[in-house]
Amino acid sequence: MKVTVVGAGAVGASCAEYIAIKDFASEVVILDIKEGFAEGKAMDLMQTASLNSFDTKITGSTNDYSKTADSDICVITSGIPRKPGMTREELIGINAGIVKTVSASLIAHSPNTIIIVVSNPMDTMTYLVHKTTGLPKNRIIGMGGALDSARFKYRLAEALNAPISDVDGMVIGGHSDKGMVPLTAHATRNSIKVTEFLSKERLEQVTEDTKVGGATLTKLLGTSAWYAPGAAVSGLVQAIACDQKKMFPCSTLLEGEYGLNDLCIGVPVILGKNGIESIVEIKLSDAEKAHMQESAKGVKATNGLLEL
Ligand SMILES: NC(=O)c1ccc[n+]([C@@H]2O[C@H](COP(=O)([O-])OP(=O)(O)OC[C@H]3O[C@@H](n4cnc5c(N)ncnc54)[C@H](O)[C@@H]3O)[C@@H](O)[C@H]2O)c1
Ligand SMILES: O=C(O)C[C@H](O)C(=O)O
């Protein structure tokens, strides 16, 4: 199993590290445009192999896509992150050009690959990959919901004063400050709905804190987060590499599911060796449906800025 990660920055390196530590891939190639940067990150990570007990071989490449040839899975993290006060949507001007060029170069060397898009604004970048590469929809996956759900569980555990392992919950919708739809009515603590334990007001606070999770970290760090994003990507990569048939909310092209068309947005999917093996349609309340429609409107407005 060969995995390429484009972008050796904060998220790309974190993602490569988590993939290696989980020790399911034979090879991880990190590629960056900055001279020597990916090679340096790869060497530093390889020097953790004996300490962290993994056998995954990590190599780096300065923009030489021949090194990525025949990758089973490619992760795109290249592009600029936001600074405090910015929205993810403001990154479109620079990141669209990068994602378009990078995805074409990856596919030229790995025509059968599955692509995971991380660069922001992620739902729109995932749609761009659809529009420009012609890959089948099961092989283009946007990562956002897995991260947002992890943040949702963190906030739920905080509100419940419970260990995170007690808590389950999912965030669907767009990966944006306003577009996320945390499914509070479906969230549970050990199979009991959290609505049994938390007031409506406290759950509204959890929802709000979840939606601005990325912005909160960006304000604290001066740039956007990387540990949880890297871990979330590694979870998707592992589910595909190990054919786990796990359910994650991922951004995928919708063709009528959830009453939505011609956009990529986060919905629950099953991930296995073919990438997105199916889209799971769950029953939403009228309020949740309305939030999804509103979220889709936002994603479509950003898609409208693409020069296709
Ligand atoms: N979808 C998500 O949940 C999620 C989570 C975190 C970050 N992000 C996004 O991921 C992206 C990367 O964030 P980061 O914190 O790692 O940024 P970073 O600046 O640390 O790293 C980005 C890297 O991309 C490289 N790069 C730029 N253009 C390139 C090109 N054409 N080819 C190859 N490499 C290129 C840069 O040299 C840099 O090393 C941002 O757009 C950020 O918003 C998304
Ligand atoms: O917040 C960001 O801009 C980065 C990423 O999308 C995140 O949610 O951490």
Features:
EC 1.1.1.37; NAD(P)-bd_dom_sf; about 300 residues; alpha/beta; L-malate dehydrogenase (NAD+) activity; 10 helices; 6-stranded parallel beta sheet; binds (2S)-2-hydroxybutanedioic acid; single chain
Task: Report on this structure.
- Catalyzes the reversible oxidation of malate to oxaloacetate.
- It catalyses: (S)-malate + NAD(+) = oxaloacetate + NADH + H(+).
- One of its GO terms (molecular function) is L-malate dehydrogenase (NAD+) activity.
- The protein is an alpha/beta fold.
- Helices cover about 40% and strands about 20% of the residues.
- The chain has helices at about 10-20, 35-45, 50, 90-110, 120-135, 145-160, 200-210, 215-220, 225-240, 285-305; strands spanning about 1-5, 25-30, 55-60, 75, 115, 140, 165-170, 170-175, 180, 190, 190-195, 245-255, 260-270, 275-280.
- The strands form 4 sheets. Strands 3-2-1-4-5-6 form a 6-stranded parallel β-sheet, sandwiched between helices. Strands 7-10-11 form a 3-stranded antiparallel β-sheet, covered by helices on one side. A 3-stranded antiparallel β-sheet has the order 12-13-14.
- α6 (about 145-160) crosses α9.
- The longest helix is centred in the N-terminal third of the chain and has 18 residues, at about 90-110.
- It is globular.
- The structure holds nicotinamide-adenine-dinucleotide and (2S)-2-hydroxybutanedioic acid.
